Amino acid sequence: MGREKPKQFLHLKGKPVLGHVLEKFLALSNLFSEIVVVIPPGSREYCREVLLDLEFDASIVLLIEGGEERQDSVHEGLKQISESKRVVSIHDGVRPLVSSSLVEKIAREAEKYKAVIPVMPLKETLKEVNGNGKVIKTVPRENFRAVQTPQSFCRETILNAYEWALKNNFYFTDDAALVEGMGEQVYTVPGEVKNIKITTLEDLLWAEFLLSQEDGNV
């Protein structure tokens, strides 16, 4: 999709992908009284314009520039959350089709279980391969799941996990993996087919189609 514009700033039905994401969370003011948006360096003014275009009170939104790696960026964002908050939800800025009901369900469950993530069953057969592309074995898919966001945690649990990872110089691809690595239990809830992550042009076109369906235009 090119490197000229971050994926969260690509336009989807007339507004940036990030704008769609923020609308979902701003509409859940009963759950989220603070929203920290970790943005690419140098994009602060653009993000402010995105917020001004939303029909919600954006005063609860804090923009901070991210770090070198995703894990560094999320850690910086977590440190901005008030100590009074019991639960935090971490969401990819390129998943604009997540439903409000899923966001709310995961946050509520995290109040009981400390760490909760949405997952989807796998459809394809899984093969383990070596560096040369040779199949080593077929892996049973029944016990495997694809992970989505938002991932919700007890604030203390996820901050402890990030401090543990920093201390040990561990880097993981998702937030729940840090909690797992620290030895804490992570629970799952069913994710959503529409909760896609936009990483390719095809993803963007598919998201456009799904939004058109919701609007009754298809």
SSE order and pairing:
Layout (H helix, E strand, L loop, with lengths): L10 E2 L2 E2 H10 L8 E5 L4 H9 L8 E5 L4 H9 L8 E4 L9 H14 L1 E7 L4 E4 L5 E5 L5 E3 L3 E4 H14 L6 H7 L5 E4 L10 H15 L3
Parallel strand pairs: 3-4, 6-11
Antiparallel strand pairs: 1-2, 5-10, 6-9, 6-10, 7-8
Name the features.
single chain; 218 residues; alpha+beta; Spore Coat Polysaccharide Biosynthesis Protein SpsA, Chain A; 5-stranded mixed β-sheet; two-stranded antiparallel ribbon; 7 helices
User: What proportion of the residues form beta strands (DSSP E)?
Assistant: 15-25%
Largest sheet: 5 strands, mixed
Number of strands: 11
Low-confidence stretches: none
Highest CATH level, the class: Alpha Beta
Give the CATH topology: Spore Coat Polysaccharide Biosynthesis Protein SpsA, Chain A
CATH architecture descriptor text = Alpha-Beta Complex
Task: Using the alpha-carbon principal axes, give the shape.
Answer: globular
Can you tell me the number of structural domains?
1
Q: Could you tell me how far the N terminus lies from the C terminus, measured between alpha carbons in angstroms? A: 25 Å
Q: Can you say what the CATH homologous superfamily is?
A: Spore Coat Polysaccharide Biosynthesis Protein SpsA, Chain A
User: What integer value in Å does the Rg equal?
Assistant: 18 Å
The ordered H/E elements are: EEHEHEHEHEEEEEHHEH
Structural class: alpha+beta
The number of helical runs is 7
Fraction of residues in H or I helices: 25-40%
Mean pLDDT: 92
